[in-house]
Amino acid sequence: AEVIKVEDPKSTDPVRVIKRLYGQDCNLPGGRTVAFEAYNACKKGVTLNLKHPEGRRRFYELIAKSDVFLHNMRAETAAKLKIDYDNLLEHNPKLVFATISGFGPEGADSRRPGLDPVGLARSGVMPGLSGGSKRPPILPAMGVADRVSGMITGYGILAALLARDRTGKPQRVDSSLLGGAMWLGQLNLQHALFTGNELFPTDHSQDPLLNCYQCSDNLWIFIAATTAEGWPALCAGLELPALVTDARFDRPEGRWDNRSDLVKILLERFAGNTSAYWLKSFGKQPALIFELVKRPQDIADDPQILANGYLVELDHPEMGRKKRLAFPMHVNGKPAGRVGPAPGHGEHTDEVLTSILEMSAAEVTALRKEGAA
Q1: What burial class does residue 61 get, using C-beta atoms within 10 Å of its C-beta: 0-12 exposed, 13-18 middle, 19+ buried?
Q2: CA 250 from centre of chain
Q3: Of 46, 41, 16, which is closest to residue 31 (Cα–Cα)?
C-alpha cells in the first residue's frame, strides 16, 4: 500500500517531538524520535492545512483518489475539520473509512481522549502485565494497546476493502484502545468471566515446568516441559536421568504434588552451569521446548531472526546504516511488506500533490504561500 500521512504545516504529529519514552531519552539524530520512526516507516509525509479552504479542497481531492482513510482523532474533532465519515463520502462514495478511538464509538465515554495506558487500565489487562492485581500496576514499555488496536483495525480494513469491491458500497471500520487491549488479554479476561477469578503469572511454586531458570552466567532459560515427551527430555538435557523414574516425579500429578522439591532441584541444577552449556545440551533433545531469554538489545544479530527477514538493514538519511523491524510475514515464500525511514515533516508534499493531483510546481508553491500546505 502507498500510505500518505497528512499533517498540519505548523503543528506536527505530537509523536514527532516526544523526547522521552517511559521516562527515557528517545531522541535520534536529525531531530527524529524513536516513536515516530517506529510507527511511521515507509509512509509519505504531506502537509495540508485542513482549516484553510484551499488546503481542505486539496485534501478532498486526495480522498477522491484513495481507497482508505484512517484517523485517531476524537469524533467531534473530525467533524469540526469536516473529515468525518459523512463529509468524506461526498468526495468518495466507495471509501473505506476507519477510526481508532480510546473507548469505542458508542457509550458515555466514547468522546473521551485516550492513550495506550488508558486502554490497558480500563480493559482489565494491565494487572496481568504487571504480575497480577496483588502487585502495583506498571506500564509495560511496549505500546501494547496501540499495537494490537492497530492490527485489529488493519484486519478490518482488509475485510472492508473486500466487501467494498464486492458490493460497491462504502465501509466503515471502528476500533479502540479499550477493545484492542481486551482482545489481547482474552485468555485472562475470559477466565475471569467464567470463574470470577483472574489468572496470575506463573512462578516456580505454581508450575516449575513452565518457567524460567537462572544459569551460572546470570542469564535465564525458559522451559516448557509439561508434556509426556517433554519431561524425560528435560531430565536428559539436565543430565539427570534418574529423575524420570523418581517416585516423586514419575507421574504428572506427582510432579505437581511434589513441585516444591522439584523446584529446588531445578534451581540448583540450572545454576550449576552456564546458559551456553544448557542450550547445547537441550539442543540434543528434539522434544524439549526451551529458549534463552533475551533482552531487546540482544536481537540485532540473532541468526534465526535475520534468516526470516524479521530485521532488515537499511540506510537512514540521518543515522546511516541501521536495522529495522520488518513485517513478520511471508507470502508465497517471500517476505511481505516494505521497510524504510519515517518521512520528514511534509517531505513528500510536492511529490504527492504533483503526481496524484497533477498540480504544477507553481500551484504547490502558491498553496504554501497561502498557508494551505
Answers
A1: middle
A2: 42
A3: 16
Residue written as grid cell 498557508: 371
- Dist. CA 261–CA 259, nearest whole Å: 5
Asked if residue 51 has pLDDT above 90, the reply is: yes
Nearest to 217 by CA among 275, 175, 256, 162: 275
Output the pTM of the full model.
0.90
Q: For the residues of 21-39, what is the DSSP string, one character each? A: ETTEE-B-GGG-BHHHHHH
Q: Is the pLDDT of residue 303 over 90?
A: yes
What is the structure's pLDDT at 328?
93
Contacts of 341 (CB under 8 A, 6+ apart): 37, 41, 42, 314, 316, 317
| The three cell numbers locating residue 48 | 495540508
Amino acid at 241: P
Q: Which residues contact 21 (CB under 8 A, 6 or more apart)?
A: 34, 35, 141
43 — pLDDT class (breaks 50, 70, 90): very high
